[in-house]
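Task: sequence in, structure out. Protein: Multicopper oxidase CueO.
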Amino acid sequence: MLSRRRLLTLGGLAGGAMLLPGAGLSRANAGGTGGNHLHHHGAQRPPLARTPGVGPFSVRMPVPQELTPLISSSKLDVYQLTMRPANVEILPGVSTRALTYNGAFVGPTIRARSGRRTIVTFGNRLGEAANVHLHGGKVPASSDGYPMDVIHPGLARMYDYPNDQPGATLWYHDHSHHTEAEHVYRGLHGFYLLQSDDEQRLGLPSGQYDVPIMLRDALFDDSGALVFDPTDPFNRPTLLANGRPQPYFPVAARKYRLRLLNGSTHRVFELDLGGVEMTQIASDGGLLPEPVTTTNLTISSGERVEVVVDFSAHPVGSQLVLNDVSGPVLRFDVVQKAVDRSSVPDRLRALPPVPQATNTRQMTLSLDPVNIQALINGRPFDHTRVDAQIRRGTTEIWRITNSDTDVGGSGFGLPHNFHMHLVQFRVLDRDGRPPLPGESGLKDTVLIQPGESVRVQATFGDYLGRYLYHCHMLEHSALGMMGQFEIVR
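Result:
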């Protein structure tokens, strides 16, 4: 059992990262996806980024391989993936045991199309139970990856993804209860890129200039093995981009679409490109109504941000470094000129109408150091309990409050975030203030600072059954910071 001290460490009070006395935050004017660009008042910064025996920018960032369908027809694509342990190269020249999809530390990318059904059969050769959640997907409950609905070793399961939603950067990962944090940390994660016709008509960067980048952190021992300590998630000083430590990536002097995913189980990334402007075009649920120019991004666990960076403003030979507050993450090396016919129009995607809400709910997030639990509305997750029953087609407003302003009497507050399955929501306000421009689109995950309340609005349509909402700092959800709603007729 975790001690109170270890729970406080899980909260970050020993590591010092992302901790804020009370709720003292300043909001940046530029829009990151998570709302606030954090400023640390009196708290220690995260440990400096470092990789054992490896200097920054010594390896090239790979782009995850795209999976080829086994069957492809006019209305359907069929894929097969296997979850299995594998020895992979994360640190240069070092073999590391990981949990993988098809042997890759960042699983193969599935490119799907809106309105075109995808079926994926996942086989389990891990030697332990696991399952799969399509994060951001509007899918039937039977294919959502419910925590107790697992694939046992040696078996397989077919997941049905209708793709009846706008184009967006989604991702797939394990969601088996109590083991989700470790499974994701050890490599059960991959991109699912849903594309739609309206994006193609806009002329955004595409093909090799449309690059998915999974950012995350890790801790390695002296042998190069991954170390997972759920009670100290801040002690993960190695920053990875697409599974490699602080890599470089060659680019042409032209515009690139960068799909940034925070695949960490706990870390909040605070990113900048050395003052270079980035144009945010999308968040979790896809394209924003209009582009947002920013120089910094705050991305919490599970969130996605898409930006366009124009490298043509920098001569061949230039190097641009994507930095986190703890150190460099990725270097872009401008190596050649290129013709560029892509563009970023002033209007991207109109938001759907907002129906009148007919119900409101309050969700309060908190840690319980005495009983070593993480709670929503004072209760840990119980799969036998339905926390909210919602009629299909209903629109609701949820007010989510982070009450962890003084964890265990420490004087320090703890950030959480909040992810809802099945739906994409609209952020209405933060403590009564308008959401930042980067939050103007559809979202499924939102960062909530200590003492802060965020209101979101969602319409619960299409499918019946039980779905989850939870903190996507997965060490917190594994401790019980999760609930379930049931869609009924």
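The chain has three domains: 4-13+351-488, 71-201, 203-337.
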